[in-house]
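Field guide to reading this record: the first block holds the primary sequence, the second block holds the structure written as discrete tokens, and the final block holds curator observations. Each block starts with its own label. This record concerns UvrABC system protein C, catalogued under organism Aequorivita aurantiaca.

BLOCK 1 — SEQUENCE
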Amino acid sequence: MANASVSLQIATLPDSPGVYQYYDKDGKLLYVGKAKNIKKRVSSYFNKLQGNGKTKVLVRKIDTIRHIVVKTETDALLLENNLIKKYQPRYNVMLKDDKSYPWICIKNERFPRVFPTRRLIRDGSEYYGPYTSMKTVHTLLELIKGLYPLRTCNYDLSEEKIRAQKYKVCLEYHLGNCAGPCEGLYSEKEYHDNIEAIRNIIKGNFKDSLHRFKTQMKALAADLKFEQAQRVKEKIDILENYQSKSTVVNPKINNVDVFSIISDESYGYVNFLQLSHGSIIRSHTLEIKKKLDETDEELLQLAIIEIRQRFNSQSREIYVPFEVEVGEEIKVHVPKLGDKKAILELSERNAKYYRMERFKQAKIVDPDRHEKRIMAQMKKDLRLKEEPRHIECFDNSNIQGTNPVAACVVFKNGKPSKKDYRKFNIKTVEGPDDFASMEEVVYRRYKRLLEEEQPLPQLIIIDGGKGQLSSALKSLDKLELRGKIAIIGIAKRLEELFYPNDPIPLYLDKKSETLKIIQQLRNEAHRFGITFHRTKRSKQALDTELETIPGIGEKTVLELLKHFKSTKRIANASYDELSKIVGSNRANKLISHFNNKN
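BLOCK 2 — STRUCTURE
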């Protein structure tokens, strides 16, 4: 069993692919693992009895769990490999050797060779990968070899040496695998055109190549060569599942620090990814409390300096989401697309997950404190006299004036209180008049609360602009509640908040928790009202047809619908089926009605 601190950390882990890291109470890294679902994988360590003695000891030592979220399970595998080789955790034994994942190299030569390698040599050559399976590499190279004649020799094919006839074609030429560039039989331009096509195949643009394989597979199957066809099918499967891009290991991005920021009203969360030799070797998120409403730019600048000092970073280049001032000796780059943008987005994703986890942990540890903070924030943001512990939101719903209804949803302490939801049929308004409908339901709602001596809300939210707000105010005036209950209107398009007697709307920060709760209230009122409206329309349509039949009353209609569920099924039912429910007399009337209709 995990201790309380570890249990809390597990409860807020994400259900995403990534890498998890276990640390002991002294902050020493014990173990690095990968997972398709981080939360499930980590939970499994604590939810079952461990048979392995080493694992039992590991679990007892775990004090802190950290994680890095990535896009795919393949990226998780690569990241795990990077971290284990970098930090050599005590309880990882499988990946501590120097073996690395394979790459495909297009050599920096006049007539480039294409071959697999596990070593990255920075001589201007192109490297694609890394691959988690050598089988994928061999399949790709076999495909390339079958499509394009490439040299495999390591001769220096300079123009002077070819002109001097230094070399002779080898067996590969006679087998048709090479077109003989060593004797000048293959032009440099044509060779490089083929290399460009190979680049596309390696990057994953191999639609034509897949078509060739599928044609080949069908031809083999037609000739009853099923074993060979199956081998070709395996190649197709591998190519279709092949991923050419990895944000976790990318030789184009070397020795760079990546920073991103996610913020709300109170805190900024800055994520730091450190890349060394094209691989992510560290992820850290710093939480910064705002003191003077600092901007994201100000917070990020402070965080970059602090994080680089803490981890003693020597990188001379950083990737950030916007321009920052961090000194002339550091090159600042704001990626717009491609691999660099992808690595910045990965950093942002980790910052978002960290923020979500902090919120979840706060709710679990001290739900009252979380509620108090939100209520205090809403009071401040909405310029209220008291905390809005009880909020009610109204929304009208009608389609072309038919079946007008309204809904009132209630939130208490920032959460829906569904037992207090109320729905209204509009009684005094003819036609589609949203303003008059709003005036009616607000009046009816608070007249009843006053009569029953029920507690009134601290805040009323009207779904609509100035018109709906003015209508609601008329009802509060009639009930002498103006000034006793705060009331605002929210316009849908720009999320404008309107106050009584104030022509200028209030705009809340889009990241604001206050705005999120108001939007949740508005959306919940809309959903509740629409559901009621649809139910009413459907019931009216059913009732209208069945109740027009002479001798069929409301009670009979309810019995029929309860059993058959729809008018269509009632119409298709036999005499025996109907008579069992409503008796022979009414069954005859129903059969006669639907026969005449048909």
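BLOCK 3 — OBSERVATIONS
The chain has a mean pLDDT of 81.
The CA atoms of residues 476 and 482 lie 5 Å apart.
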